[in-house]
Amino acid sequence: MIEPVIYINNLDHYFGKGALRKQVLFDINLEINIGEIVIMTGPSGSGKTTLLTMCGGLRSAQSGSLKVLGTELCGASAKQLTISRRHHGYIFQAHNLHESLTALQNVKMGLELHPDISVAEMNQRSIEMLELVGLGDRVNYLPENLSGGQKQRVAIARALVSQPKILLADEPTAALDKQSGRDVVDLMHKLAKEQDCTILLVTHDNRILDVADRIIYMEDGRLAKAPDLQKVS
Amino acid sequence: MLKIIQNLTRRTPLGWLQLTQHKSRFAVAISGVAFADLLMLMQLGFQGALFDSAVILHSKLTADVFIISPQALNIGAMSTFPRRRLYQAMDITGVKSAEPMYVNLVTWKNPQTRDKKNLIIVGFNPDRPIFNLPEVNSQLDKIKQSDVLLFDRKAIGAYEKVVESVDDGKAVTTEIERRTVSVNGLFSIGSSFSADGHLMTSEDNYLRLFSRQSSGNINVGLLTLNPGYDPTQVVQQLKAYLPRQDIKVLTKEEYIAFEQGYWQQQTPIGPIFNLGAIMGFIVGVIIVYQVLSTDVNSHLREYATFKAMGYSNTYLLGIVFEEALILAVVGFIPGLIVSLGLYTVVGGATNLPIAMTVFRAAQVLAGTLIMCMLSGAVATSKVQAADPADMF
To answer: How far is the CA of A102 from the CAs of A95, A109, A142, B201, in angstroms?
Structure first.
C-alpha cells in the first residue's frame, strides 16, 4: 500500500492563549496521494492558509495527526520543522525573490540547502530550471528588471529546482494578470507532472480550478462540501 | 575545518551582495565605520604620544640604573636626595660610575618673542657625558663657559630665528630667573606634554640659576654598570645597601614606567583619551547597528522566505555577521589611511612623537571587529521576527 504524501487526521488548531484562545481549524481529515493536484478554496479567513502553512512545516500542529512524507509534524520541534521544509517547494502570493540576487542566484538558493550537490551541478541545474520556465535568456537579471509574471516564474523555478516531492502554493496567481496567471499555473502543472510532484494549492482564483485533480472547499475552519463551483464562476 | 571551507565556497555571499547592491548606502556605512576608527586611532594616538613624549629625555640617557627621591613626581618635579648616596653606590661591585643629574622645569623668555615659556633644563658634569646624543657630546666645551646653554631645536613655539642665528654661529641671549644666559649650541629632542622643549648646561651653570639648590642635593643619580652585570640584580643589592627612607633605586625600564605611570595615574590625561576612544567605539556601535538593522528590516520578507525554504535561523544570523565583518574590515582601511595622514599633520604641528604602531592598529581593528559584532548581535534579534507563518 502506498502511503499518502499528506495525511491529516482529526487536526484541530488554536490561535492565541488563555481567554483569547480561538479555534481556527476543526477536526480536519484529509489524505493527498502522490502526484495529485489538489486545489483548496473557500472564503477569506476560513483557515486555508493556516492549514497550508502547517503542511509546509511553517507552523507546528497542536493536536491530532499531521504526517507529511511519513514524518509526524504534530508536536515537532523547531529544528525538525526546519528540516522538513527542505523536502517541499513553497510558492507565495508575492514572488519574494531576493532583490540583491540575480535570477540564477535566487534559484540556486533552493539547492544550497542540499550539501551533497557540487557548485557546478547547482549552476547547471539552476540554469536548466530557468530554461524550463522560459527564462533562459534572463539568467543574470536582477528581479527589478523582470516583469511580475517573470518573477513568479523564477519563484517557481526556485521552488522546484531541488525536485521536491510536494509543492505548496498560496495564491500564486493573485498578483498577476489573467494571461500571466494562466501561464504560471500551466507551468506548475506541467513541471509537477514531469517530476511526479504533489501539489496543494490555495486560491480564490476560479479561472485556474480546471488544473485540479480534486478541489476541496473550506469554510469556517472545516472542510465542507463544495458548493457548485460552476455556479460560482 | 575542510568542511567549513567547502561550505563557504558553496555559499552565495548574501551579506556582501546585500551590502554592495546599494552603493551610496554602502559608502555611508563604510564612512561611518571609518569615522569611528579615526576617532579611536586619534585618541589612542594622542595618548601614546603623551606617554612617549613624557619619557623622551629618559630614552636618551645612557645610564643603566637610576636613583631618585621617593618624593619625585615627574621629570619636572624630581625633588632631591643627598649626593652622598652616589658615593655609597660606588661600593657595589659592577657599578662603573655614578653621576649626578640636575633637572627641573624652568621658565625662560623666548629670545625671539620675549614671551615666557616652560622648558626642562638639565645640568650635568660636561666632563662626563650622560646622553647618547652626539650633537650634545660634541658641544660640551661650550657649556663649560659660564651661563652658556644648549637649546632644543625641536622645541615648539616661535624659535626659527633663534635656531637660524645659532646655526650661523651667533649666540642668542635671553633671561632665566632674572639672570642673562646665552644659547651657543643646538641639539634635537622635542617637546613633551609638560614642557615646550629642553635646555642643557653644566651643573655649575645650573646651580647658578637655581641658587636655592645646593650641589649636595641632586635630582637624579645615574649609575653605569660594567659590562656583564645585570641591572636588576644590582638594583636589588643597592636597595639592600642604601638607606631606604630618602631614595628609590630603579632600572631604566622601571624609571620609564615610573614617569609614564605618573601621567597615566596622577593626571586626568590618560582617562580623558581612553574616554575619547570609548566614545569612538560607541559611535561606531550605533552607526553599524543602524546600518544592519535597516538592512535586516528591508529584507524581512526574503529572510522569511528563506526560512520557509528550510534555512535555519543560524544561517540568517550568519548573513548579519557576514555584513558586520565586511563593514569592520572595509571600514578600517580608510580609517587607518586618514589617521596616518592626520598623525603626520599633528606630529608636524606639535613636534609630539605621534606615530602609528602595529599594536595600536591591531588594537583598533580588534575593537572594530568587536564593535561590529556587537551591533550585529543586537540587530539579529530582528531576524527572529522573520516568521514565514505570520508574514504570508
So the answer is: 14, 11, 4, 76
